[in-house]
């Protein structure tokens, strides 16, 4: 035997050994190859949308966009537009500052806006967030004024007819309020109408003298504001003392 091994070239011995080891390892190789093929499988970017759904981790939008807000019919009444800038309003009308400049909030009033007897606006962050608009007295029935409002805003979500004394709006200059109360005192009938959506709220009160449309005189007051909280709290609820505690500035 020794002479046989000595006569065999050394590389042949190694080759036979390698072949024998490979043959004995063949079952293990067959089990290993499928797993290797799975690991080598790649997903192309073009196939990603069809094979994997990536969850959207962006936060839900809680605030309406500017275009959505502007689309609301409740965002404006006549020439008065909520979220208008202070500079824009100052260019459109001569307004008197009732609080100090830079106060939080700033309150202005004006009697130079077309079709408006008096305007009081509350600005927060330089934008109009709340306003009282007093229209001129007209020879008109409450029904006619309500019809005009419904053409703009649709059917009101609430309507109350009443009589009695008139309270002073919180954002109105006391001197202006005295004149206003004296004028509506001759109009004993009141009709309150309310419109509201996710961003804005309009409360219109029609003061009129008679149920007879042919004889009725009417004054309409509109309170409009951007919704500031889920409970519909307005800036006027926090600033009832502001005007009386501050001097007026031109």
Spatial sequence of strands, sheet with the most strands: 3-4-5-6-10-9-8-7
Q: How many whole angstroms does the radius of gyration measure?
A: 39 Å
Oligomer: single chain
- Discrete helix count: 8
Structural overview:
- This protein is of the alpha+beta class and 250 residues long.
- 33% of the residues lie in helices and 23% in strands.
- The chain contains eight helices and ten strands.
- It has helices at residues 2-7, 10-39, 45-51, 66-71, 86-92, 142-153, 174-184, 242-245, and strands spanning 76-77, 80-81, 96-97, 106-110, 118-124, 127-134, 158-163, 189-196, 200-208, 218-226.
- The strands form two sheets. The protein has an eight-stranded antiparallel β-sheet, covered by helices on one side. A two-stranded antiparallel sheet has the order 1-2.
- The longest helix is centred in the N-terminal third of the chain and has 30 residues, at 10-39.
Give a quick set of tags describing it:
alpha+beta; 8-stranded antiparallel β-sheet; two-stranded antiparallel ribbon; 33% helix; 23% strand; disordered C terminus
Task: Give a quick rundown of the structure.
The protein is α+β, with helices and mostly antiparallel strands and 250 residues long.
Q: How would you summarize the topology of this molecule?
A:
Layout: H1 2-7, H2 10-39, H3 45-51, H4 66-71, E1 76-77, E2 80-81, H5 86-92, E3 96-97, E4 106-110, E5 118-124, E6 127-134, H6 142-153, E7 158-163, H7 174-184, E8 189-196, E9 200-208, E10 218-226, H8 242-245
């Amino acid at each position: 035997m020794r002479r046989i091994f000595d006569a065999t070239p050394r590389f042949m011995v190694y080759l036979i050994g390698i072949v024998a080891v490979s043959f004995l390892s063949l079952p293990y190789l067959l089990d290993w190859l499928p797993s290797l093929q799975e690991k080598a499988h790649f997903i192309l970017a073009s196939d990603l949308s069809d094979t994997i759904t990536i969850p959207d981790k962006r936060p839900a939008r809680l605030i309406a966009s500017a275009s959505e807000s502007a689309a609301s019919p409740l965002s404006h009444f006549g020439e008065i537009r909520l979220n208008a800038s202070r500079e824009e309003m100052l260019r459109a009308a001569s307004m008197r500052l009732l609080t100090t400049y830079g106060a939080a909030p700033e309150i202005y009033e004006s009697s130079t806006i077309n079709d408006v007897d008096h305007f009081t606006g509350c600005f927060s962050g330089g934008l109009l967030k709340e306003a009282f608009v007093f229209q001129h007295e007209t020879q008109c029935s409450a029904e006619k004024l309500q019809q005009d409002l419904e053409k703009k805003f649709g059917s009101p979500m609430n309507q109350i007819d009443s009589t009695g004394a008139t309270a002073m709006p919180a954002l109105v200059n006391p001197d202006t309020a005295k004149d206003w109360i004296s004028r509506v005192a001759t109009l004993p009938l009141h009709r309150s109408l309310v419109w509201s959506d996710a961003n804005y709220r309009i409360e219109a009160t029609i003061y009129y003298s008679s149920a007879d449309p042919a004889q009725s005189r009417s004054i309409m007051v509109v309170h409009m504001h951007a919704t500031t909280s889920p409970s519909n709290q307005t800036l006027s609820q926090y600033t009832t003392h502001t005007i009386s505690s501050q001097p007026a500035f031109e």
